[in-house]
Design goal:
Layout: E1 2-6, H1 10-20, E2 25-29, H2 32-44, E3 51-55, H3 63-76, E4 86-91, H4 96-104, E5 109-112, H5 117-126
Parallel strand pairs: 1-2, 1-3, 3-4, 4-5
Helix pairs in contact: 2-3
Length: 132
């Protein structure tokens, strides 16, 4: 599986990379604009991401806006439900409006920081991507 990690904090990005590398090939970007570009490039290569992790608070384009753009591209290209990327957001914010917005835009799991291995294992179980 191909995995995209969009996180502007270096420590969190490296932690996510180390964890998700056991599940597939990981690409890392530092903002929402790069996430959208990487997503579009993966479609052009016919090698789309199976999992996309977006931090909400990032420079240039935040994770929710990037999520909205990525979801709209999938709809525009009529990507079938079983081939749509699994998406989840990570954030230090924990307010109901952001959670609701994330789910309305195609997010499947919402994780609050601080992140740790146990939380990420739960993400993989909720997304039905765990290897157990």
């Amino acid at each position: 599986m191909r995995i995209l990690i969009a996180e502007d904090d270096y420590v969190n990005r490296r932690f996510l990379f180390k964890f998700f590398s056991q599940y597939g090939d990981c690409d890392m970007v530092v903002n929402g604009e790069e996430a959208v570009q990487a997503f579009m490039f993966s479609l052009e290569e016919s090698d789309p991401y199976g999992l996309i992790c977006l931090d909400i608070m990032m420079p240039k384009l935040d994770g929710l806006k990037a999520l909205k753009v990525i979801t709209s591209i999938e709809k525009e290209k009529e990507i079938s439900d079983n081939e749509i990327s699994k998406k989840f957001v990570i954030t230090a914010l924990d307010n109901a409006k952001d959670v609701q917005n994330a789910f309305e835009m195609g997010c499947e799991v919402y994780v609050t920081k601080p992140i740790n291995t146990e939380k990420l294992i739960e993400v993989m179980k909720k997304l039905k991507l765990d290897t157990e």
